[in-house]
Design brief:
Elements (H helix, E strand, L loop, with lengths): L1 H20 L1 H21 L19 E6 L10 H15 L2 E6 L6 H13 L4 E5 L1 H10 L7 E5 L8 E4 L4 H18 L1
Parallel strand pairs: 1-2, 1-3, 3-4, 4-5
Length: 187
């Protein structure tokens, strides 16, 4: 004990002399030590599991695209529950979802290029809601064997076209979610 007090006393008494001769070096050294301590505290990994959640979602390389009439997916239109079901499926499968409103005249000839653009954008699944978008999908689907199509409304299934029956908004949303979850998992 006496030995350690003796050495501690010598170091303590020598400190003012060391600082007196080199104040700039001592100040810089002290600043580096303090900065390293602050950086270590700030950058130390947290052991808490409830930290800040990531702001970006990581998606799989699977796209499902919704084709609507010119009204889009605003609340109250037939495409709104379909879009909600697609978003639910995205949360379950991490597939990317997007929508494209077909602008212009409400004719099959006008809407077919919109369907083709979704196919060219490499949408794995193309969903159509509304009479004209559904007709356009049925016209394009036989030539696009590598793409899955989903139509909301009447009609029958074909090789690469699945049908979601119309119903109340909650039923449509759930049917779309289930179908897209299974189709995007398979892609």
């Amino acid at each position: 004990m006496r030995w350690s007090r003796q050495w501690l006393g010598r170091i303590w008494s020598a400190l003012p002399g060391a600082v007196r001769g080199r104040p700039v070096v001592f100040g810089v050294g002290l600043g580096v030590v303090v900065a390293a301590g602050v950086a270590a505290v700030c950058l130390w990994p947290s052991t808490e599991k409830g930290g800040v959640p990531a702001t970006a979602r990581v998606y799989r390389d699977v796209d499902a695209c919704l084709l609507t009439d010119s009204r889009g997916v605003v609340p109250g239109v037939p495409a709104a529950p379909v879009w909600a079901g697609m978003q639910d499926a995205s949360l379950a499968t991490r597939a990317r979802m997007s929508f494209l409103p077909a602008m212009g005249p409400d004719t099959e000839a006008n809407v077919v290029p919109y369907v083709n653009s979704l196919v060219q954008e490499h949408c794995s699944v193309v969903v159509a809601v509304g009479a004209t978008p559904v007709d356009a999908v049925r016209a394009v689907a036989p030539r696009q064997k590598g793409v899955r199509f989903v139509v909301v409304g009447g009609g029958s299934n074909s090789a690469n076209v699945s049908v979601v029956r119309e119903g109340d908004r909650t039923e449509v949303r759930e049917r779309v979610r289930e179908l897209l979850a299974s189709l995007t998992r398979a892609s």
